[in-house]
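Notebook, p. 212. Picked up where the previous page left off. The plan for this session was modest: take the two constructs that came back from the sequencing core last week, fold each one, and keep the raw output in the notebook itself so nobody has to go hunting through shared drives later. Recording the first one now, exactly as returned: residue sequence, then the structure token string.
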Amino acid sequence: MRELSKKPATFADLEHVPETMTGQIIEGELILLPRPALPHAQTASNAGGDVNARFGRSGPPGGWWILHEPEIHLGADALVPDLAGWRRERLLTLPREAFLTLAPDWVMEVLSPSTASIDRISKARLYARAGVKWLWFVDPLACTIEINRLEAGGWLRCAAFGAGEPVRAEPFEAVEFDTSDWFAPAPSE
């Protein structure tokens, strides 16, 4: 809980975040998170590579900018999703700054035990308020993919998949993704 006398965090506070951490401003609070564990990074990299390979270009079925860990300023908040996508018809070119102020059309949050509640509650609330249309939650430990669509200002879960299941889901339903390599194999004991 935020102390009443404490000033809200500002974008200037992000300039002092150590390189080994990711800084975000969520509802006035500066949140510092360590770099993700390797299963998280592998899931984000492989899922992002699949989505970007098919949609991160201008021709069909593309027409998206797909970015890994972009900094997004939404009002006074600064969020860093694992992946985010903007339809090129809304974002004609990428700005030269290190952040964007236009809410993405699609966000993928890869869940970690230490950040899942932030992703599912605080960040999801801010994405909805900003008008993000689709929010995917991918859990690298449970090996699940959850697809959510913004409906009447809240999130409607419209599909869920397990590891290895083919995924054809909004907003990328034009293709089917083979998710078998989105998740790292469990370590041998």
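Okay, moving on. Second construct, recorded in the same format:
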Amino acid sequence: MKALVYTAPNEMTFRDEPEPQVGASESVVEIQAVGVCGSDMHAYQGHDPRRVPPLVLGHEVCGRVSGGPFDGRRVILNPLISCGYCHYCRTGRFNICSNRTMIGMTRPGGYAERVSIPDQCLVPVPDDMNPVHAALSEPAATGLHALVLAGRASARPLSECRALVIGGGSVGLLTALLLRHQGCRRIELAERNVLRRESVAKEEVGRVFDPVDETIDESGFDLVIDCVGGRVTRVLAMHAVAPGGVFVHVGLMDNEGGLDARKMTLAEVTVIGAYTYTTADLAAAADKLYGGAYGSLDWVETHPLGDGARVFAELLKGNIAAPKVVLLPSEQV
């Protein structure tokens, strides 16, 4: 089969790869759409020691099952493969399973014509759901999970909060869109890339701005969600979060500090780490996408999988305005 393989830092190669190996209680999925995630870009640059080349990346997958008990079903995939028996699995927190593995990290991922995955990771979606939209379920679920955690910690309903979302990629934009859908009317979104900023502004979620060139209210936001996760964005988040507010850290760009421990303590700021999502979050996000909660989704850009090497290079240069790029294995070059 054809696959886009991460072969070295800043190098992707479109080539023939072996057919996926299928273990017990596993299925093969014919991939119809697969998104490019920020973590894939991070790995592409050689910044993720967990992803060792040569490796097929990609974990935001929609496809159709071939064979087995789910044969013919259109599905999205939970890329996190949990053990089912550790303390965290037994308490329903599968996303922080002690023994978790993941497609696109510890086993081949979705930048291919086919992928194998345990049946427990298959999440059926409506047969008439646009596979490109369905592939957004993974980043949408990441934002949904962050908002679920924030809602538990916030002193007031999120709809009443003044919210700042940092990062205008798919997770950031989908989080802002869901906040708007849930009734939040005071949303601001920080994004450095001018092309992406222009794309995000068209969705009218609120003020979209460059945090370097424009000022931001100090201690002015009840809720801050950092979908980038770099030192500079953590500094921005701590500057912006209000006393008694909630700061949810989602992105994983680096681990270079940036948290203001004095403000966290004196202002009783709640800081929450949000890692991916549960299967329930994933299914709920897919349902919301199908039902139109996130709007038209016309800001997604698609390319053939065979053109993936060029797409990654252009993303690295900041030349693609779209908040999300989805690759289509069925449209090879």
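Notes on construct two before I forget. The chain has two domains: 2-136+297-328, 139-273.
Flagging for discussion at group meeting.
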